[in-house]
Amino acid sequence: MLLVGTETALLDLDADRALIEGVSVTAINGDVALINKHRVVRIGDLTDLGSLDARDGQSVAPLPDGTVLVGRTGARLAIVSAGEALPVTSFEEVPGRDDWENPANPTPDTRTLAVDSRGRIFVNVHVGGLWMSSDRGTTWHGVVEPEADIHEVVNADGRVAVAAAVGFGWSDDGTTWKWTTDGLHASYARAAALDGDAAYVSAANGPFARQGAVYRARVGARFERCEKGLPEWFPGNVDSGCVAARAGRAAIGTETGAVYVSNDAGTTWEVAVDGLSAVRSVRFS
């Protein structure tokens, strides 16, 4: 299932059908979606799992126990369970958070979330670094400094990766990180995806760039630009949440309402759909 979240609908592109219409999709992660910045929905059966008390949700991730973690404005977290949204107060006490500053918004964003198969939670604060919890949010550890300016955190098969203003970073233990910009035309990375040993990343020369591109590589190797079937340049950044990969397939969603799909690990691409409202998230499920 290739899920596409836009400003006006949640779509299953593989089945060529709309799952929910007349909504703005804030984020998709696994089998859950955040709708209209406050409503959490299980995609499989379209069950409402609960809602925030304000439309200030930014990111979402399912937890192993069936509850759902939601990132909120102001670098806050909530766990949605049994229709309730309970604050994760421990995250509001991590050291240094009073110094976090967001150049794009009045308060820091909880931009993206990832939860791995071991239940470790990774929280990407823009701009406040990457934080990890191994005990369901009871305690937190900073694993990447705020200066990296992370835009997305993703995980697959025990590996964690980030797209950041300083390039592409990855870690096999969550605490020791390697970084590269090798092969990228610019270091400013906005979206990332992992598919086994394959990595994808979008890059541009800054937040207001007019020339964006998507690259692929084996993790740790030099990136190669994805070109065949794609525009010479994307007209800006391919944003956080808008690159996905699984089982040799990959997808790119754009602000202009197009979705590009590759069925050969990023070697060739084709337009799967065009003319949508702005794409906010693409994910394989």
Descriptive overview:
The chain is mostly beta strands and 285 residues long. Helix content is 0%, strand content 50%. It contains no helices and 28 strands. A four-stranded antiparallel sheet has the order 3-2-1-28, with no helix packed on it. Strand 26 and strand 27 form a beta hairpin. The chain is globular, with a radius of gyration of 17 Å. It starts with a strand and ends with a strand. The mean pLDDT is 97.
Largest sheet: 4 strands, antiparallel
Q: What structural category arises from helix and sheet content?
A: mainly beta
Radius of gyration: 17 Å
Overall form: globular
- In terms of per-residue confidence, which ranges show pLDDT below 50 for 5 or more consecutive residues? none
Kindly report the average pLDDT value: 97
**H and E string:** EEEEEEEEEEEEEEEEEEEEEEEEEEEE
Q: Enumerate how many helices there are, as a single number.
A: 0
Helix content: under 10%
Beta content: over 45%
- Physical arrangement of strands within the biggest beta sheet: 3-2-1-28
Short account of what is shown:
The chain is mainly β.
Task: Chart the SSEs and their pairings.
Layout: E1 2-6, E2 9-12, E3 17-21, E4 25-29, E5 32-35, E6 39-42, E7 47-51, E8 57-62, E9 68-72, E10 76-81, E11 84-87, E12 109-115, E13 121-126, E14 129-133, E15 141-144, E16 150-156, E17 159-164, E18 167-171, E19 178-180, E20 188-195, E21 198-204, E22 213-218, E23 224-225, E24 243-246, E25 249-253, E26 259-262, E27 270-273, E28 279-284
Antiparallel strand pairs: 1-2, 1-28, 2-3, 4-5, 5-6, 6-7, 8-9, 9-10, 10-11, 12-13, 13-14, 14-15, 16-17, 17-18, 18-19, 20-21, 21-22, 22-23, 24-25, 25-26, 26-27
